[in-house]
Amino acid sequence: MTDALSVARLLVGSLFLGAVTNAMLLGHWYLVQPGLPRRHLNELGDILGKVWPFEVLVLIAPTGMVSVLNGSIDDGWGGVLGWFWVTCALTTIVLVVVTKAALRDRQYSAVMAATGLLYLAILTAFGTDLVARAILYAAVSSSAVCALVDLAVVACPVLLTEFELLELSGRSTSEFVSEVNFLRTLVARQLLLRPRNDVIFCER
Questions:
Q1: What's the CA gap between 174 and 159, in Å, rounded?
Q2: How confident is the model at residue 137 (pLDDT cuts 50, 70, 90)?
Q3: Domains in the chain: how many in total?
Q4: How far, in Å, CA of 129 to CA of 155, rounded?
Q5: Is residue 26 part of a domain?
């Protein structure tokens, strides 16, 4: 893997995960403040849809997930993780399209539906990025620690519009930052505190 490709995966992955995380969090503010204009949630949906092709592209670029699917790289699960990645990637963009369609409905329940869909999208988006990253790092690096550190960085992206959401929500800075940091801490702990023999990208 070239340094340029590694940097591209880091940057695009951060933007990708940041967009889906922002969209899911913003959906919650709509649930407590229904009068917010929907254009903000639509804009994040547009960003996520536009970043998705680049996310898939940098992850399949050699050496990438195509090598996992054709068997050149062993994912340790007989190819299952490779197809799991494909499923996550395709499901993510489908959820984005369906979320955008739901937001065209004028009923308040449409926002509730969109938030639920974004809950699913954040799971599949993290699966798209982190599963691929774990498999590919295991294939090119003997250092599980390096993979863990990089995954922790990508899994806790700087949210793209934190203070814009703060302004929209009317919450205090301390309340908003506390909630965001709590979410990030949960993700980081899941990655960093699991037993070594339970992490698929640790050296076997």
A1: 16
A2: confident
A3: 1
A4: 9
A5: yes
